[in-house]
TrEMBL record, chains A, B:
Gene3D superfamilies: 1.50.10.10, Glycoside hydrolase, family 65, N-terminal domain, Maltose phosphorylase, domain 3. Residues 304-679 form the Glycoside hydrolase family 65 central catalytic domain. One of its GO terms (biological process) is carbohydrate metabolic process. It comes from Clostridium amylolyticum. This is Kojibiose phosphorylase. Belongs to the glycosyl hydrolase 65 family. The keyword DNA-binding does not apply. The lineage of its organism: Bacteria, Bacillati, Bacillota, Clostridia, Eubacteriales. The active site is at E479.
Length: 758, 758
């Protein structure tokens, strides 16, 4: 077993959708779900970042675009359909090092003909508009006529299997015969985004062409090319399928012209060259991002799976898109962007690929207009970032959903989950702390800080009696409890973010006063506002605990029914206790890290004693009904020495999708959990932290069976390599830097190894 | 077992296409293949008589129109898909007496929910534009939310499973929400025929509505209505699905307006009323057509199956369409009309429902323009009816096909199978003999006779040496032999039809000379032509036999390799002998009745001795590779006393589709064989014949185990009932008539039974 490969060796059609997610190939621009060409079972997906549409759907959602993957083989008149075949060999292998999906199947058809099909597929990271497949087809026990059918399918819908939500988001506006090759141009209904997919297939046999006849046709919303060939027993042919994709979001050029020109060039350059270039880019990505864990294959393979998909899901080429909760891997959560991006995924990019992190933050800057509209529409001022965000920053959280029993329930998160504003500010500050990118703060970051603070100013309620500011009727990270007052997470981060806004405003004023002046002018911020902000941040009510130790998640939480979690499943995860007469919201059961989340984000604000007590209190009450939770408990578990559970939660996080432990991998990647997995490794096991003063420190703890853990991080301008072994820690940096290791400040000279005994 | 019911009690998805054909519901206007709503496996079909298109296809073909049948049930989010269910009970029953398809399935879904679904479906014979279904849905072990999805699917293509032939023949030009109900309007590519399908579903529970919510959407080329309902355990709901269909061939009215108005009226009148009226029409049809066979359930059920589908396939409402080789039951032979109609199916209509027979003949009259064009394009004069005919009488036989090994072969039938012209003349004469419909001859029939004779005049070649007319390079009914000279069937019928033309011309001249004059003027026929025709018919070469007894099928046939048929399959049908070095066309093996066919059609021209000898000679050499063959051998077998084989061939013909004994029932009904079955019963077992002098006679022979055979026929103005029992024959007529029984002329007074001892 290579620790770079995710392998599937048995076929079960009921797992197709899960593996479509697991085997998704994406490059930040486009995600192609890992559909098996030779099965009709599944839910294929071609998601292009930023292509959103509402039309018939409940809310604006990512568009499942026309599918260019279609590739059928007919032996005489018999379609090779794996679900109708005997399968003698089945293997699909995602080579994460290369970013290439390999497969090999050996089947007998219903009529008894045998065929071996080896294939490869890649979505190019070298040129994000390109993707390709390669097929090696060997007839086993027959010689005969074979038809190869190349299809671009425009009948694709979103929510295909759900009749009430199913929606078609585009119409076909052009079908093109490229002689050979073909293209299908579509246009979304609402915003008229045009999308083109172009493909061509090329055969190779004995260094020459193997196709004897071609027929092109337009079949409703599909374009189809059929090629006739003649296969000889045990004499394989190779077919390359080239694809290019463009949208009117990317270019002003005529789409059919650019897509077909690029396709032509792609064919000329050849599959092999693109594959090599693509692998080279992936080598660079892995150079930045890999975490080596020696001695624990389970953890090694698992962490790479998470890093691989997280890297696949974003790139530096488009600052008007962000990373969705299900990434480019499925339609789940409608392609919407949540706090998942800033709170869970962004740290990975900040510390490994800051150019991508900047792009993700720029998405928020570029959607400020929508955030302002959200504030205005709900009666507030400034910018109110949406709980769920699509293309323009307007709130797109559905208003209605279904509970566990299928009854309609009002979804309140879009109305009440305000903490998203502070989460974004937190991310900007973290980005700045790690990169020192002043330019970003001055040009973009400060505007977000000011305008979100302006929102808080209008949102907080002054309680005269207590002389304090409150934030009532909210939802915190724990979504089991709605309409709560003074959620600590929300209030604490609001306070913190207002404070940071004041600090950054002060700092920018000294750097370039005109910038601040211009911003205040634009956003309508006066000196009085600054004073009021200062008052608010000082007086925001942070509920204290009964005993000064355990923090009450929100006002009144301690009065709720305290129903103990008694049973755990085979993975050690909590099972639902009997709620008796209580509704879920009437208990202290928590969906996911909330106070715990706060203690990770603002760890410098809490003593070790308080952290430990709160970790223990909430760990006993958390159901982990969100994939965002286990990784966070892993981090805090390591902080407080609960290493057994920390490791359990780490593995749980790593295998969220590979083991489908939330039961919905079908619908896309648990992207937050991929970021949480990285955080758990780096912030947890390596104990990496930035102090209040802005200094970098590590405090590693690794399990007994790990012989070594090694990774790179970007810190300011430096690339630091950290290798944690049983006895020693080795640190190397390409620039002179300093780092605190177990409370001791270490100077690291450029390109010199420093060895620190543990 | 009711002898009116075709039942299927076991489900096997691989039989779906076969049963789609067997369970097709048609009314002459429209055929809806018997797709099972709850399976995705199959090849659904909605064929509307006369709707032809070529566009991307090889030749003009019947259009598989948008499918209005779509009806999905979702239990919560789980689609009821029979191929994913455990099946506890499965029954589909075609009640042929009523023309209603009943079904009942009881299944458990993958998640373990049980449901019983009873349904009915009819394609109304009372109003050919209407069809409907009724569903009774009972949840077994659950109560819960259920979605009902009503779909009209415009993604339908022809030859869906064959990538090289697949073609889309229409585009969607209108999607309509009828609130409730919906309609989809399409338009064919070539001739802009517009087709509308409209449907509405109505629920009923405790005498009230059961639907709680409706959502309409347009999904690409589909329109979809989803209804939400809540089912209680063991508490069934009933859903009626109403449908109307119109095309721009039928009406000048706005299609959406007429279809939705009719739909509204249909719903108002109710399913039950339409069902009753529909059954009443079928009662009348059965009154005209049924053949009772007492003592032989196999034959009784089998003959009704054939009569049922033949009756379904044509009606008196459209004289611009005819009955295709696969009827309205499938896309096989592209919906083309062959000699099958006139030679095999028409006698049934002539003797039972002459108004339909007239319509079928009118189709030929109405396509004379195309037939004239065919003659002109191939260098001849007059009218040359196409071997394969679609909407306009132009030749639409494909030029290329594939042999048994999949190699492309030139198809010559469209170039050389000239006998179709005489087959049509033969049918006209037969129609006239049975009905005495002078008006038809004067207005339409004679023109066909004259113009086809004009074709023969230009086609025959004068052999000066032998002083005879020859017809060379032809294909006779036996298509194993191409480019043959002087095929006896072709030459004999050409001779006969020219002779009949001269007789009818003479007769019309005496009836109304101006008619003949006008026709001669229009068709360019002079007195010299009449003389030449007479010369030709006298001197057409009819190859004589070596010994004066066995007729040589064509010149040179006796010189071919005489390879004996050695083996027969379990049904007693011949198996391919080893051809050795010979190609099929180099042997005396015959595809189907050829000389034998001639001896049935023109039996009065041959002595009993010659018929017997030729029957035996060719029976030993016929492979029956056409479903047109067994019934004919059955008839001639009875004539010559080979009763054992005659019965075998009769059963073979009856069960052509029910036992799929040609292996291609998937693609549609073997319509010629249904007509052949009727002929075998009536012309064979009852021995019904019209003498040269035009007198009706019967000469029954029935198998030992038949207690009785009874049927009605139309003869001139009379309806004659004939009941053949072991000892006696009973004859009754509603008008005074005479009939020859076993060579003895019997007078039958109106409404009196005549009993004739056998």
């Amino acid at each position: 077993m290579s620790l770079w490969n995710i392998e599937l060796n048995e076929y079960n059609k009921y797992d197709n959708e899960k593996y479509e997610t697991i085997f998704t190939l994406a490059n930040g621009y486009k995600g192609l779900r890992g559909a098996l060409e030779f099965s009709k079972v599944g839910n294929k997906g071609n998601l292009i970042a930023g292509v959103f549409d509402k039309s018939y759907a409940q809310v604006t959602e990512i568009v499942n675009c026309q599918d260019p993957l279609g590739f059928n083989i007919y032996i005489e008149d018999e379609l090779v359909d794996i679900d109708e075949c005997n399968i003698h060999k089945f293997n699909r292998t995602l080579n994460m090092k290369e970013g290439v999906l390999y497969s090999e199947i050996y089947i007998s058809t219903k009529s008894g003909k045998t065929m071996n099909i080896k294939s490869e597929r890649l979505v190019s990271r070298n040129n994000v508009h390109r993707w390709a497949s390669r097929y090696e087809i060997s007839p086993g026990n027959f010689s005969g006529k074979v038809f190869i059918e190349n299809i671009i399918d425009g009948t694709v819908t979103n929510s295909t299997k759900d009749p009430m939500s199913r929606a078609k988001h585009f119409q076909v506006v052009g079908s093109y015969d490229l002689e050979p090759g073909m293209a299908l141009l579509t246009k979304t209904f609402d915003k008229n985004i045009q999308i083109i997919e172009a493909t061509r297939i090329i055969s190779e046999k004995d260094n020459g062409n193997a196709f004897k006849f071609r027929k092109y046709s337009e079949i409703g919303e599909k374009v189809v090319e059929v090629y006739e060939t003649f296969l000889k027993k045990d004499n394989p042919i190779t077919i390359y399928k080239y694809g290019t994709s463009y949208t009117s979001r990317d270019t002003q050029e005529n789409l059919i012209s650019i897509a077909s020109k690029d396709l032509q060039l792609f064919v000329k350059e050849g599959y092999l060259k693109e594959k090599q270039d693509h692998i080279k880019v992936w080598e660079n990505i892995w150079e930045d991002t890999d975490i080596k864990i020696v001695g624990d294959d389970l953890a090694q393979l698992g962490i790479r799976f998470n890093l691989y998909h997280l890297s696949s899901s974003a790139y530096e080429g488009d600052d008007k898109v962000s990373l969705a909760a299900k990434a480019l891997h499925g339609e789940g959560y409608k392609g919407h962007v949540f706090w998942d991006t800033e709170t869970f995924m962004l740290p990975y990019f900040i510390y490994t690929r800051p150019q991508v992190a900047k792009c993700l933050l720029m998405y928020r800057y570029n959607t400020l207009k929508g955030a302002r509209k959200n504030a205005e529409l709900t009666g507030y001022k400034g910018a109110r970032f949406p709980w769920e965000s699509a293309d323009d920053g307007m709130e797109v959280t559905p208003k209605w959903g279904f509970d566990y029993d299928g009854n309609p329930v009002r979804i309140w998160t879009g109305d009440e989950e305000y903490h998203i504003n502070s989460d974004i500010v937190f991310a900007i500050v973290e980005y700045y702390r790690a990169t020192g990118d002043k330019d970003f703060i001055i040009k973009y970051g400060l505007e977000i800080l000011l305008d979100t603070t302006k929102f808080w100013q209008s949102r907080v309620e002054y309680n005269k009696e207590e002389d304090r500011y409150e934030i009532n009727c909210v939802i915190g990270p724990d979504e089991f409890h709605e309409h709560v007052n003074n959620n600590v997470f929300t209030n604490y981060l609001a306070k913190w973010s207002i404070k940071k806004t004041l600090e950054f405003a002060e700092w920018v004023k000294t750097e370039d006063e005109s910038v601040l002046k211009t911003l205040c002018n634009k956003l309508g911020i006066t000196e009085e506002d600054f004073h009021e902000w200062n008052e608010i941040q000082k007086k925001i009510y942070i509920p204290t605990s009964q005993n000064g130790i355990i923090i009450e998640q929100f006002q009144g939480y301690f009065n709720l029914a305290d129903i103990p979690i008694i049973q755990h499943d085979e993975n050690g995860m909590p099972m639902w206790p009997n709620l008796g007469e209580y509704k879920l919201g009437e208990t202290q059961l928590v969906k996911q890290a909330d106070v715990v989340q706060l203690m990770i984000m603002l760890s410098e604000e809490f003593s070790q004693e308080i952290i430990k007590a709160n970790y223990e209190y909430y760990e006993a009450r958390t159901m982990h009904k969100s994939s965002l939770s286990p990784s966070m408990y892993s981090i805090l578990g390591l902080t407080v020495g609960d290493t057994h559970n920390a490791y359990k939660y780490f593995i749980k996080a790593l295998y969220t999708d590979l083991r489908d432990n939330q039961g919905n991998t079908d619908f896309g990647l648990h992207a937050a959990s991929t970021g949480g997995s990285w955080q758990s490794a780096i912030f947890g096991f390596a104990g990496l932290k930035v102090s209040k003063e802005g200094d970098l420190s590590i405090k590693p703890w690794i399990p007994e069976h790990w012989r070594c853990m090694e990774f790179n991080i970007n810190w300011r301008d430096a690339r630091i390599n950290i290798r944690i072994e049983k006895e020693n820690i080795f640190i190397k940096s390409d620039k002179h830097t300093s780092i605190t290791v177990y409370e001791k400040k270490i100077n690291v000279l450029a390109n010199n190894f420093v060895k620190i005994p543990r």
